[in-house]
Amino acid sequence: MELPKNVTQIGEVNPHCKIYVEDYVISYIKQLNRHAGDKQLAVAVYGIRKEEAGIDYLFLYGACKLNFLQRECRHLSQAVLQEVEKQRKRYFSEYSFLGYRLLDGEMVEGFHICEQGVCRYVEGYAQFYEKNDSMLSFMLDERQGEAPPEELDRQKYDVVKKRQEERRASAENKGGQIVRYRRRESRKKQSGTSKVRLRNMQLTAAASFVMLGVVGLAIMSNGEKADDWKTAARQLLEGMTEKRLPDAVEVVNNSVQPGVIVAEDKLTDAILKENAAATSGMSEEGQQSEIQPSGTVPGDQTPAGTEQSTEPVSTQPPAATPDPAPTQQPTPEPTAQPEETEAPVAEPTSYTVQKGDTLIGICIQKYGSDARVAEICSLNNIHNPDDIKEGARILLP
User: Which of 41, 251, 272, 377 could form a disulfide with 36 if both were Cys (CB 3.0 to 4.6 A apart)?
Assistant: First the structure.
């Protein structure tokens, strides 16, 4: 038996089974092996089996990809065998199925040889160069039979475009609905604000009528205060017309709240003035009533007092009035005089500088503030307030 020449050995030589692989088969396996990184691929190998001196010689002249084999197995399934036979009849009818090889991106160093329905792995093979028309035609057919780039059908394009337009139209409709909803909400808020303003106007009018009623009652009850009440009412009405009470609306937490009615403040001030006047009158009457029994000050308003007592009593108050005078004379406090005497008593005192002392610290310690630092510097001819030496004696004003 004549063996191929110019061979290249890959891996170790098996003494019982020697495999020779044609160069086109190796090239096809390498092409598939580059695409077998993520998922394993399988190829079936075809060729001729010979035996001599108890040694099996396998010559591989064809290979094709298997779609139904994805893992190593000792017995091939019926589907795999049918696929193997179909590819053999189509491209390698003159050869026999010899085995398979799983590709995982690593270098191929052996094949799974099938004999009598059992597959066993044989390591090592020899690569040789020889004319191989069957494998060359298979590789050309497979290259031409590769799936051409998918051409986009016009009908599919129109369908996709129509769907996009429908989605865009629906999105625009939703946007328009949102805008209309917001407009309705804004109109509702405006109507609510107008209602609140109308209610404030009604409350203002009611408060004005109440105020006028109170003013009328006060005039009827006390004629002496009629002018004051009229003036207060006139000022109140002028203030109401100037401040435009219907606009006195506050917005709190995005909700409209009625403001404070100005009429209430004016009415409150008028009532407080009337109460203060009434209390002051009562206090004056109480003081007069207390003074009359003592006989010191005769009042004109006391109906029980006699006219004869007015002359002698009028002479007595002068005697009583000088008494408080001396008590009021000592009001000028004598404390003002020591302030004038403090200026001449400014005799400088000496101070020995301790470790860590500063002029500012000494001034604060002696006088309670650093306002006299400049005076100390001028008194001791110190040009730099921060430059004082420990143990030095300085004068303090």
Answer: 41
Residues 6 or more apart whose Cβ sits within 8 Å of residue 172 = none
* Amino acid identity for residue 172 in this structure: E
Summarised one tens digit per residue, pLDDT across range 143-154 is: 775 545 555 556
255 or 99: which leads in pLDDT: 99
Both tokens of 239, joined, read: 């203030």
End-to-end CA distance of the chain: 133
pTM of the full structure = 0.39
Q: Take residue 16 and report the two structure tokens written for it.
A: 């019982």
